[in-house]
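ENTRY TYPE: paired fold submission
RECORD: A
CONTENT: sequence, then structure tokens
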Amino acid sequence: MRTDIDPRHLIGRKAFDRNGDKIGTIDEVYLDDATGEPEWAAIRTGLFSRDAFVPLEPSELIDGTLRVPFDRSLIKDAPDFGVGRHLSPEQELQLYHHYGLDVTSSPPPPDRDFGHLAGTDETAGPAQ
């Protein structure tokens, strides 16, 4: 995904899987605390469902929607860490493994932590 997109502009956008099936709506965007780059999106998968984390790097913003290159079933089965707080390095690693993404090319440093951008909140970091 292009990193020059303001992550606040992702909140509320629809997300679709690799087959064009609707996954849900982006609730939050998680930023890498070290770089400030958008790293993960939490997508509300339904009215009474939980949020599923999806990686933003292999995803694309096309015609105002997020296109995630994974099947809907894989996304819905992603580990559930809850939203509104930082992702730990261990949680991030679990998500990378879940999606089959290569973590050896850019391993997270041991003190790496992920902030989030909730709703229209303009700051990164943990929810208060």
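RECORD: B
CONTENT: sequence, then structure tokens
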Amino acid sequence: MIILNPLFNVIQIALWLYLWAIILSAILSWLVHFGVINTRNQFVSMIGEFLWRITEPALRPIRRFMPNLGGIDISPIILILVIYFARDLLGNIQYSLNVGGV
């Protein structure tokens, strides 16, 4: 089971990076909404478009099932909780494979 350890590590790093992409996307959307950052800036526009393209496919199904909370979008929080659950699950699987394989 030694081969699975690097695979689990890569998956956990990818989940960690995706978690930060979700957080950055939410913060950027707040900054744009409150007028702190101007989207006419090409760099800001590119970063916002990139973050939207990688996070929106995961957030869209969550938003479909969420009730209307009066303009508050908690789908990033739910996705972050799902990512934490997946990382813990992968860690437990990795631990059980290491203990069972020794």
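NOTES ON RECORD B: Residues 4-33 form the longest helix (30 residues). The mean pLDDT is 89.
STATUS: closed
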